[in-house]
Amino acid sequence: MKVVVVESPAKAKTINKYLGRDYEVIASFGHIRDLPAKDGSVDPEQDFHMVWELADRGASRVSEIAKAVKGADKLILATDPDREGEAISWHVLEALNARKVLKGIPVERVTFNAITKASVEAAMRKPREIDQALVDAYLARRALDYLVGFNLSPVLWRKLPGARSAGRVQSVALRLVVEREMEIESFKPREYWSIVATLTTTDGATFEARLVGADGKRIQRLDVGTGDEAAAFKRDLELATFKVASVEAKPAKRHPQPPFTTSTLQQEASRKLGMAPAQTMRVAQRLYEGVDVGGETVGIITYMRTDGVDMAPEAIQDTRKVIGKEFGDRYVPDVPRKYSVKAKNAQEAHEAVRPTDMSRLPKMVARHLEPEQAKLYDLIWTRTMASQMESAELERTTVDVTASVGPRRIDLRATGQVVKFDGFLALYQEGKDDEEDEESKRLPPMKAGDPLTRERITSTQHFTEPPPRYSEASLVKRMEELGIGRPSTYAAVLQTLRDREYVKIEKKRLQPEDKGRLVTGFLESFFRRYVEYDFTADLEGQLDRVSNAEIDWRAVLRDFWKDFSAAIGETKELRVTDVLEALNGLLGPHIFPDKGDGSNPRTCTVCGTGQLSLKLGKFGAFIGCSNYPECKYTRQLSASGVDGDGDGSSAEGGQPGVRVLGNDPVSGMPVTIRDGRFGPFVQLGEASTEKDAAKPKRSSLPKGLSPSSVDLDKALALLSLPREVARHPETGEPILANLGRFGPYVQHGKTYANLGKDDDVLEVGANRAIDLIVAKEQGGGRGRPAADPGRPLGKDETSGRDLVVKAGKYGPYVTDGEVNATLPKTMNAEALTLDEAIALVNAKRASGGGKPVKRGSARKAPARAAASDKKPAAKKAPAKKPAAKKAPSKKTGAG
C-alpha cells in the first residue's frame, strides 16, 4: 500500500479514484503546523530559530497519516506545486520524523498542474525530493511576516489605540489606497472646452470632426481653457468654409491577451463577474480539485496559483482544434502563439490557468456546476480560447479637415475604426478598470479636396477629473506592477484590509476608513522605510532569489532585522503627543479641511480660542479642543468636512466615540452612532440617570456595515427592527427580519433562520425570507439533514394534541409536542398504537419529566436585542492569577 498526502478532502477523493486500490489518499487539510502566537516563536538571537506547534486539527491529521504510514510501502507527498504546497509537504515530513514512524519507508514528492487521470499518473512516474530552496523561501516569508506583525502591531496598539494590526504587505497595500484618496481630495479641477463640428459630405453622409489646431499651432485637449476662447472658435467656425485636406487609412492589428495568471484571473473576474479576489480563488479551488461532470469527478482547470502564461504543447494543439471546429480555420493562426511573463517578480514555473480539456465547452458543463462555478469556468475557457485565436484586423482612418474663415485657417480631425476581420474579438474582449473603450466609428467615403457642408458647431465645457479610486482588480494590478506581494497573497491581503476595517467598498471601489488613514500616517511618520514600495518589492525579489537557491534565507532575515529592530526600539521613547502632532501634520488636509473663508481650520467652533487636534480615546482617535475640560467640543474624524458637515455642529458638546446623525422625525429625539465595548451601534435618544427609566432603543450594526457609511435613514431603519418581511404561506403569520446576538435572521413564531453573508437584513425580500423559513422548518437549518417528521399516531381526544412517534438520539420516543416519552425496550416503534402512546405521555407528564427544550430558547434562537443592549452578567468571576502579557493573535501579521 502506498500512502499519498494532499491538502484537501475534495482533492483526495478525486485522486483516489484515479490511483486505485494500491493507494490510500489522505488530506492534511492544509498546513498542519504554525508558529505559536507568543514571544520567541522566531528567535533572532538564535539565528532565527523557528518553533512550530501542531494545531488541534493538525495533531489529528498527523495521527491519521502516521497510522496509515505504518506498514506502508511508500509515502508520496502530493501537495500543490508552489511554495505553500512544498511547505505543507515539508511540515508533514518533519512531523512524521518527530514521531519516528517512517523508519526506512521511502518518501517521494510529486506535483501535477492539473487533477486529471493522465496528469496524476504522469506525476507518479516522475517523483523527486522536497525542494529545500522553495521551503527556505517559505520559511523566510513566514518569519518576516511574524517579525513584522508580532513586533509592529503592539507598537500600534500602544501608540495608536483603535488600530488592529500591521503586516508587511498589508500595510503597503493600504498605503496605495490611502495615497490615492489623498490625490483625489487634493485634486483641483481644471476647466477646458471641446469644439466639435458636425459636417456633411457631398453624398449627404454626416460625421464629426474635432478642433486640433489653428493658425499653424497644434491645440491639445486642455488648451481651450475658457468659455470666451471657446466662443471665439465657435464664432469663426460658423462662418468658415470646410474641405477635406487629407484622408489616410492604415491597416492595424489587435492581438489577444495571454491566458490567465492568478492576478489577471482575479482582475477579470472582478470586472466581468463582480467577484472579489477571495471569492474567485475559492471557486477556482473547487474547479481545480474536482467537480462531478456527468458522473465523473475531475479537475476541470489547471492549478490556479501561478505567474506563468505558457501552456503545455498538447493543450495548445487541443485549443487550436476546438477553435477550428467552433469558428473555422480562418480563426486559427498559422503558428501557435507563445507568451512571456512581464511581472517583475514572476518565478513560478507553472502553466497558465486554463481548462484541463478544451473540448469541455462551458455549455456542456454548466448544468453540472453551481452558477458561480459555471461563470468562472466560462471566463477561463473563453480567455484560453481567445489567446490562441487569430488577431483582429482593423482599418484605422484619419481625415484632416481645413476650415477657412478670411485669412485664418483652423484644423479639425475625424478618426474612425473599422473591423475588417474580428478574429479573437468574435469571442472575447478584455475588460478595463478606469476607462471606457473608444466607440468604433465608421467614417463615410471621402477624398482630399472634397468640399464639406457645416451642419452645426458645438462647444462643450468640461472639467478634468481626479484619478479614480482603486477597484479590487486595479489594486491587484498595481501591486503586481510594483512587484509587491505574490499571486497567492493578493486575495488574503485585500480581505484582511476589509476585516480590519481599514478600507470599505463603495460602488465597487476601495475607500480608506479613518482607521486606515491613521495607521498609514503612523507608519509613514515612524516606519517609512517599511511601507516604501521599492523596499517591499526588493524584499520580494530577495525571497525569489532564495527560492532559486541563490542566497541564504537567514542572511535575508539578518539584514532585515538589524534595521527593523532598531526602528522598533526607537518607538519606546515615542510619546503619544509626538504621534498626534505627526498625524495632525500629515492628515491635516483631511481632518482640518480649508473652510474657504481664510480662517484657521483648526480653530474650535465652540469656544473660538482653542485649537482642534487629534486625541486618542478608549475607542480610538477623535478630534477635540485644546481648552478641554473647559471646552468639551469633540467630533469624529469622519465629520471633518469631507464626509460630514465640516463645522462640527453635529457633535457639539458630545463625547468621543459619539456622532449625531440627526433627529428622529417622529419623536424628535437625537439619533447617534456610538462605539461600544461590543462594537458600534446606533441609539435613539439619551440614557436617563433615573433608576427606573427605560433604556434608550439601540441596534448593533450588521457585520460588514461600516460606521462611516451609516446615515440617518439607515440608522432609523436599523432602529425600526424587527420588520415584517412576508406572511407565512401556510399559517398566514408574519415572518420578521431582525438582528440578534449571532447576526441577522428571519423569524416565524419559534422558528429562526440565519441570513446568509450576502443577505441584507434591511433589504431581504419576501421570497428569500419564506425560502429560509420553510427550509429551516423542513430541514433544521442550512447544511443539516432534514429532521425526522416521525409517524403520526392520531389525536388525544382529551388534550386535543396530535401524537407522533420519532427516532431519537437515544432511541425511539413519542411526543405530543409538549412532552417527550422514550419507548421502553420491550415496545416496537413500528407497532406502537395510539392508546399505548397516550399512556406513555401521560405517565411521563405525571412524573414531571420529558419536557422538550423550547425552540425559542437562548441557546437555539438568535438574541433579539442588539449586543449593545446587553448588560454584563452579575455573577462574580473567581479570582485569577495576574494574566500574562497577551500575545497577538496568529492573524496579527497577515499579509
TrEMBL record:
It comes from the Bacteria. The keyword Heme does not apply. Residues 165-170 are annotated as: Interaction with DNA. SMART domains: TOP1Ac, TOP1Bc, TOPRIM. Residues 431-451, 640-665, 687-706, 777-802, 844-895 are annotated as: Disordered. Residues 793-802 have a biased composition (Basic and acidic residues). It is an enzyme of class 5 (isomerase). GO terms for cellular component: chromosome. Residues 852-862, 873-889 have a biased composition (Basic residues). The active site is at Y303 (o-(5'-phospho-dna)-tyrosine intermediate). It holds the Pfam family Toprim. Its EC number is 5.6.2.1. Keywords: DNA-binding, Isomerase, Magnesium, Metal-binding, Topoisomerase, Zinc, Zinc-finger. Signal peptide: none annotated. One of its GO terms (molecular function) is zinc ion binding. GO terms for biological process: DNA topological change. Residues 640-653 have a biased composition (Low complexity). Residues 1-106 form the Toprim domain. InterPro entries: Topo_IA, Topo_IA_2, Topo_IA_AS, Topo_IA_cen, Topo_IA_cen_sub1, Topo_IA_cen_sub2, Topo_IA_cen_sub3, Topo_IA_core_domain. CDD domains: TOP1Ac (cd00186), TOPRIM_TopoIA_TopoI (cd03363). The record marks H31, R141, R142, D145, W157, R305, R500 as: Interaction with DNA. Monomer. Belongs to the type IA topoisomerase family. Releases the supercoiling and torsional tension of DNA, which is introduced during the DNA replication and transcription, by transiently cleaving and rejoining one strand of the DNA duplex. Introduces a single-strand break via transesterification at a target site in duplex DNA. The scissile phosphodiester is attacked by the catalytic tyrosine of the enzyme, resulting in the formation of a DNA-(5'-phosphotyrosyl)-enzyme intermediate and the expulsion of a 3'-OH DNA strand. The free DNA strand then undergoes passage around the unbroken strand, thus removing DNA supercoils. This is DNA topoisomerase 1. It comes from Methylobacterium pseudosasicola.
